[in-house]
Amino acid sequence: xxxxxxxxxxxxxxxxxxxxxxxxxxxxxxxxxxxxxxxxxxxxxxxxxxxxxxxxxxxxxxxxxxxxxxxxxxxxxxxxxxxxxxxxxxxxxxxxxxxxxxxxxxxxxxxxxxxxxxxxxxxxxxxxxxxxxxxxxxxxxxxxxxxxxxxxx
Length: 153
Hints:
The chain has helices at about 5-30, 90-110, 115; strands at about 40-45, 55-70, 75-85, 120, 125-130, 140-150. By secondary structure, the chain is of the alpha+beta class. It has a single domain (about 5-150), classed as STM4215-like (2-Layer Sandwich). Strand 2 and strand 3 form a beta hairpin. Helix 1 crosses helix 2. It is elongated.
């Protein structure tokens, strides 16, 4: 393996989550007797500059932190935010869906550690943004994630 750093971490997370999110949404719909729509679009690297379709997931790259360097490898912590945007004019429906999408992403990250090849840590506060617009009442939830891996030079 060669160094892939933050780009490789985002690609691995995106591949795993996009392959498994539909089944997770179906599971959440069953668990909560809800009718949450599937994720419409994924953004990698940063948040969209225009109003996104919703529900949307953003895998935002924050930075990288080398933890240990050896002669042939580098232990890296890749910092990302998973951000879900939901739009609904019903405040309670919007809030519950934000929480449920967040729950689904956290469960998928936990289950996918082996498949992705990264140790996954949730180390910061999960926060809800202010409502961003009057219509369609977009709001987001931000999940800070650390993806750690030892990479070879």
